[in-house]
Every structure is written in C-alpha cells, then in structure tokens.
C-alpha cells in the first residue's frame, strides 16, 4: 500500500517537475479544502439574479445614450461557468483560479483604457467591468461566500442600470430581481444555520401565497419610504453625463439656426427636416409644421394656424422643475418676432479645453438670491441646434468643442441636437422674492430700454391706452413694475380665451391690438406676445421667450418627459439689479412657472400626486384636491383649537387633555369594533367546524394557553387537561376530536352539540360561531 505522500506526489501534474514548484503544489494540496455549497436551488437562483442584473444593464443602456448588448455573450458564458463550477465544486481548481486572476487583470486594464475614453460618463465602463468580473468569477463558485459575491455584483449592476434607465421598461426587471432576491436571502440564511435547503417551499414554509404577500408588502413599504423620504440638499449628487465627442462641421456660422420645421434657403421648398413648402413660413398666412415647433428660429411668424402632433422630444433629470428655456426675441414686428442682434459678429462663440467637456458661460450678477440646479438632458427626437437650459446657466457640459451664445442668452450648438445626445447644465436659478422685486427701480437703464421697449410707432399709443385702461380697473393703485406685470398677466388669463379657429390676420393688422379689441383672445402664444407689448407700451422692459414647459414628471424614473407640444412662449420681464423673471398669461398654465422652492425635502410626494392626477379625469382630480384641502383645513383647525385651549391657563389645559383623552378613547373603541367586525367576517367564510375550532383556539389563547404551530390538535387538547377543570377539559377534547375526524377523516360533525360545548367553554359569550 502506497503512502499518502506518495499519492499526493503521483497526483502532481507532470509540468510541475521543478522542485520549487512541486513544493508549492504540495503545500497547496495540504491546505484544508473549503466546504462547498451543495444547494442547487440556491445556485440556480443566484445565477438568475446575475442574469437579471446583466439584462437590466443592457436594457437601461439602450434606453439612454448607448447600447452595450453585452448580454448576448455574457449571459450564456456566465451560465456555462456556473454549471462547470457546480460539477467542480469539490476540487481545488488551482489552474482555473490562476487563469481567472490573469483574465481579471486584463479586464481591469481594458476598464482603465475605456475609462479615459469615456471620462464624460463612466457608468457604462463600470458596468462592463463588473460584467466581465462576474463572467470570470462564475467559473469559481464552490462556497456560499462566493455565491454571495455574485449576488452583490448583480445588485450593483441593477443599481447602475437604475441610474441609466430613463423609462419604465426597467421596472419589470427590477420587480423580477426582487422576486428572486427574497428566496435567495431565505436560502442563504438557512445555509448559514446549517438547515437543509433542498425540497423546501423556498425555505421556512414560504408558500407561493405567503411569498406573494411578502413581495407585495416589501414593494409597498419601499414605495412609501421612497415617497416620504426627505430629499435634503446635502444628499443631492452631482452628476454630469455627456455624450461622446461630436466632430464639428468645416464651417460654423454662429448666426445660423437649424430648425427642420422651417424651409431652409436654397433648398427649393424642402427643409433639412423634409418639411413641405409653406409650413412654418417666415411671413404671411401659413400652416404650422405638425412635428417641429415654429418658435425656434431667429425670426418667427405668428400668423400661422394648425396644431402639432404630440411626440416625446427629450427627457430631463433635474434637481428642480422649471421652464427649459431655448431662446428669446427682442424685436416685435406686428405679427411676429425676430432677434435683432443675430449677425455672426454679434453672437459670442465659446470654446472649451480639449481635456474637459465644461464650458464656462457668462452670467449676470444679481442682488437676488440664487440656487444651483443641475440638469441632464437626453434628446429623444431630433431638435434644432438650440440648447434648452434652465435660466440662468453658468456651466455647460456638451460634446462639441464650441458653442455660441446670443445677446438674449440663448445657447446654440454647431450641430442639430440628434436623437440620443446627452448634455448637462449647471444653472444659478434666482428665487422669485416678491418683496425684493417690488423694490426694483422703476426706470430701466438706457441700454435695456433700447432693445426691450421697442414697438412699431403706429401701435404704441393704442396699446398704451388699452393697457392703462386695464390697470385702472385694479382694486388698488399699482405702483411697481412687478405688481403691474402680475396684474396684467392675470387679467389676460381670466378675461381672454384661447381661440382655436382664429382667422388669419390681415397684412396690416397688429396681432396684439386684434387680440385685445377684435378677437377677445387668440392662439396660446398670442397671450405672451400681447402681455409683452402691453408692458413695453407703459415703459416696462420685456421680451418674448420660447422654450419647453417642465413636462410630465415620472416619479419612478426621476425624469421629466417633455413633448413637442410642451413648447410655448412666455413673457420675460426685466427688473433692474435683479434680472429677468417670467410670467405666463396662457389660460390653464400656472401664472408663475414652476421653479425652485425654499424647501423641497418632500417634493417627490407632491410630484407623485401630480403624476397620478395627470392620469385621472379632471372632475375626479378636482374632487380629490378639495378633499385633501378639507382634511388639511380640518387638521389645521383642530391644532388651532388645541393650541387655544392650552393657552387658556389650567382650566383650558385640563379641558384640552380631557378632549384628547376622549378622542383617543373613541378611536380605541372604533378600532376594537373594526377588529371584531373583521373577525366575524373571517369566521363567516370558514366551514362551520373550522369556525368552532378557531373560536375555541382564540378563547384559550386569550386565557394564556397559545397553541404552538408544532402541536397537533390532540396534543394541544392533552396539554389543556392539566390547565382546566374537568368539564372544560372535556369540552376542549371533544371539540378537538371532532375537528380531527372532520379534517382528516371526512366525518360529519354534530354541530349543535359542538356549539353547546363551545358555549360551556365560553360562559361569557353567546356561543354562536
């Protein structure tokens, strides 16, 4: 018989004939072997978790800016490695471990190379590294601890996917991951305790019904915590995703605005977007383009008619909602607007360094308080080369190495914003402090008045008379520009209507005068034009601004979904030393657009309700809002009443304490009655024999003798003999015997006799089941 040493030497690979390598090999062989994890169910579920994490990363990347498609090979190779590891779990596999270590080092090197190339957004590079590591790691999973590493990698991949995802297509995979994770945690816990993990209902008696209930509870609690958790400013992350660099065209004219909805010069009636001649025409009667908003151009014609077909154009992740400003106009033409300072030499070109995507933008100094807000925009459908931002931007992270800014604060890209493009903006958004704005000087500087008080001479006096007549109807004299702007915007909103069948204007007809005196309203953007020229007529600087409304907020993805029909015009009013502030006179819109608030710690809860309300019918939404307001008013009245009682001295304090005690007692009575009703309803659904037995168990539990889950009915009855008198013990035994014969023997019980026995056992009750 050969010795153990001889056996180990004979098993040594032939390649390790060198004494040093042989000695190392023998020492490795002498080390104690790790205890492998033999639960096949746990291994299958862990592999399913990893697969879901890989698929989620691929799906989320397709939703945002890039497509990995790494799951096409990573999922099958990882499954192959997990299968091989199952059969090799009791072996040391030292050569395989060595190869895995080399492969991981290579993957790390690839990660660093990709990290430098994608330094604008490193999330995909990190996800790719984790997937590579998991694929290699799947060939070495002997222990439960190694399976735990795979679970953590799957969880991290899901987290990366959550940051990339912009739509709800990620939600099913998130739910699937949670549904798999629950039994994985149960099986892992049983493995830690040394309990068997084969042939159980996912461990610890977790049946499919209980599993579904547990999953629903976890989801509900997670959503409640997500909605109620305060978003404190200290926890806001700074993230600056940007698309891959875009090469510039050979010649870049900063004065050019590329809008596919407009017919471009030299194209013989066809624009770059394929729009037909006459759509969004620059002057005269015309038809609106159904896809592209007419207001994104250096000159706009508001004598166009028609509607747009709704479609999503971009998704915005922002720390605060707002008006995604695109461009503004300073010169009023009577039936439209234009940017007067649009020559190439008047539009400032801005360049960024080669090693960074950051543009430093000029922004105005103000006496007003501001707040930094970070936004990330992902273009879903092709847009003009105008860059939407939240006013006022101070930093832009953009994939081209040059952008332009016009005199009205509009940002322009050298290329159109194509589908999939992502960029980030950091803005200093001013607070709208009514007290401060009322203190702004009445007379604007001459430089401001030159451009933002301009009106055609033939309409200046009629507009001024109309405006002053409206201001004279105010309940009190209005002395400040802010109060006048606020009143006029509200007046237009309440006294004029949107006219969808508005006829075309005559060639010499002024839009604002026709709006006020002839048509009693107009198209939505006509409200902003009218407000702007009315303010100018009384010496308040104003300009027309175009952009997108905040869009519909999705609380599950955290993105504002913006459509082309969210684009509209507003009025920007200048307040000396405080800057520009917007007013929205369009009926159905908020008078003051959404912006930053003093405290938005619980803003997600409000945004969730707004999201839910958007899917409900308007009457139901209004009724629910009134109900919530009444509840809040009732709670406020109650708190005020209690405060009044406690402030009345000892008598009031005693009365308040008595009132609180009485309300608490009534609440306790109501809760007890509700529980009793639920109990009776539950008994009514049970078979009569089951109902009698359950009533007996509840009564005995109240007496201090709880039936253990491991006890059979007859064992429990035998235990009761030592605790109760003979008559009650006999009743318990007979009811238990009848229950066992009915449940397991199919015998019909004598319900009348059993009810009498239950009545003897419960002398204070009626005995009715």
Automatic annotation (TrEMBL):
Q: Where is the Transglutaminase-like domain?
A: 516-587
Q: Does the keyword Transmembrane apply?
A: yes
Gene3D superfamilies associated with the record: 3.10.620.30
Membrane-crossing segments per the record? 40-62, 94-116, 146-164, 170-190, 211-229, 650-671
Classification via Pfam families: DUF4129, TgpA_N, Transglut_core
**What InterPro entries does its record include?**
Bact_TGase-like, Papain-like_cys_pep_sf, TgpA-like_C, TgpA_N, Transglutaminase-like
> What are the alphabetically sorted keywords of the record?
Membrane, Transmembrane, Transmembrane helix
The answer on whether this UniProt entry bears the keyword Glycoprotein reads: no
Alphabetical list of SUPFAM superfamilies matching this protein: Cysteine proteinases
Q: Which PANTHER family match?
A: PROTEIN-GLUTAMINE GAMMA-GLUTAMYLTRANSFERASE
Tell me the protein's name: DUF3488 domain-containing protein
Q: Which organism is it from?
A: Leptolyngbya sp. NK1-12
């Amino acid at each position: 018989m050969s010795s153990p040493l001889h056996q180990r030497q004979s098993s040594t690979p032939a390649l390790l004939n060198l004494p040093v390598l042989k000695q190392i090999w023998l020492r490795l062989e002498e080390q104690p072997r790790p205890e492998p994890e033999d639960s096949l169910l746990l291994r299958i579920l862990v592999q399913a978790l990893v697969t879901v994490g890989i698929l989620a990363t691929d799906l989320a990347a397709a939703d945002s800016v890039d497509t990995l498609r790494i799951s096409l090979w990573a999922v099958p190779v990882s499954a192959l490695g997990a299968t091989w590891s199952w059969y090799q779990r009791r072996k040391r596999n030292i050569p395989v471990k060595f190869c895995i270590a080399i492969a991981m080092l290579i993957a790390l090197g690839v990660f660093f190379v990709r990290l430098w190339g994608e330094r604008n957004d490193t999330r995909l590079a990190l996800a790719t590294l984790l997937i590579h590591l998991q694929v290699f790691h799947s060939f070495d999973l002997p222990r439960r601890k190694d399976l735990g590493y795979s679970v953590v990698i799957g969880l991290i991949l899901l987290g990366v996917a959550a940051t990339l995802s912009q739509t709800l297509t990620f939600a099913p995979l998130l739910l699937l991951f949670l549904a798999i994770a629950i039994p994985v945690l149960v099986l892992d816990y049983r493995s830690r305790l040394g309990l068997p993990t084969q042939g159980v209902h996912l461990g610890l008696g977790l049946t499919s019904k209980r599993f579904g209930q547990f999953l629903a509870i976890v989801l509900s609690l997670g959503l409640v915590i997500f909605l109620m958790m305060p978003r404190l400013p200290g926890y806001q992350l700074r993230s600056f995703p940007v698309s891959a660099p875009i090469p510039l065209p050979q010649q870049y004219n900063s004065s050019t605005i590329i809008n596919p909805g407009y017919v471009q010069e030299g194209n013989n009636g066809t624009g770059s977007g394929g729009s037909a001649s006459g759509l969004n025409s620059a002057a005269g009667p015309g038809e609106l383009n159904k896809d592209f908003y007419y207001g994104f151009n250096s000159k706009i014609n508001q004598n166009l008619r028609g509607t747009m077909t709704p479609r999503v154009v971009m998704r915005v992740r922002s720390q605060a909602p707002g008006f995604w400003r695109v461009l503004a106009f300073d010169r009023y033409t009577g039936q439209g607007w234009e940017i007067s300072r649009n020559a190439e030499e008047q539009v400032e070109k801005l360049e960024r360094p080669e090693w960074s995507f950051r543009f430093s933008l000029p922004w105005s100094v103000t006496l007003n308080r501001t707040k930094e807000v970070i936004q990330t925009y992902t273009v879903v459908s092709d847009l003009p080369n105008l860059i939407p931002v939240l006013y006022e931007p101070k930093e832009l992270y953009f994939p081209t190495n040059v952008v332009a800014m016009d005199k009205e604060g509009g940002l322009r890209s050298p290329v159109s914003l194509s589908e999939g493009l992502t960029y980030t903006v950091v803005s200093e958004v001013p607070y709208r402090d009514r007290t401060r704005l009322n203190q702004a000087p009445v007379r604007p500087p001459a430089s401001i008045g030159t451009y933002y008080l301009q009106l055609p001479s033939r309409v200046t006096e009629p507009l001024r008379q109309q405006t002053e007549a409206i201001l004279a109807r105010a309940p009190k004299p209005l002395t400040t520009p802010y109060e006048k702007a606020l009143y006029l915007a509200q007046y237009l909103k309440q006294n004029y209507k949107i006219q969808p069948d508005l006829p075309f204007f005559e060639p010499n007809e002024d839009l604002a005068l026709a709006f006020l005196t002839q048509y009693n309203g107009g198209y939505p953007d006509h409200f902003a034009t009218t407000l702007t020229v009315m303010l100018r007529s009384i010496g308040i600087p104003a300009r027309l601004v175009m952009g997108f409304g905040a869009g519909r907020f999705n609380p599950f993805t955290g993105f504002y979904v913006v459509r082309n029909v969210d684009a509209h015009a507003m009025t920007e009013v200048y307040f000396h030393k405080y800057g520009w502030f917007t007013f929205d006179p369009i009926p159905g819109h908020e008078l003051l657009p959404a912006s930053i608030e003093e405290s938005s710690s619980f803003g997600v809860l409000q945004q969730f309700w707004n999201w839910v309300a958007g899917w409900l019918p308007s009457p139901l939404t209004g009724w629910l809002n009134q109900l919530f307001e009444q509840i809040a008013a009732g709670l406020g009245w109650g708190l005020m009443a209690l405060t009044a009682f406690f402030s009345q001295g000892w008598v009031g304090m005693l009365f308040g304490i008595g009132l609180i005690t009485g309300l608490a007692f009534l609440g306790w009575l109501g809760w007890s009655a509700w529980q009793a009703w639920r109990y009776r309803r539950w008994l009514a659904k049970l078979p009569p024999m089951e109902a009698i037995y359950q009533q007996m168990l509840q009564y005995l539990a109240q007496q201090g003798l709880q039936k253990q889950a491991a006890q059979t009915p007859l064992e429990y009855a035998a235990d009761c003999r030592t605790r109760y008198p003979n008559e009650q013990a006999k009743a318990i035994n007979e009811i238990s015997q009848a229950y066992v014969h009915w449940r397991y023997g199919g015998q019909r019980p004598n319900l009348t006799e059993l009810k009498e026995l239950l009545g003897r056992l419960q002398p204070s009750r009626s005995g009715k089941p």
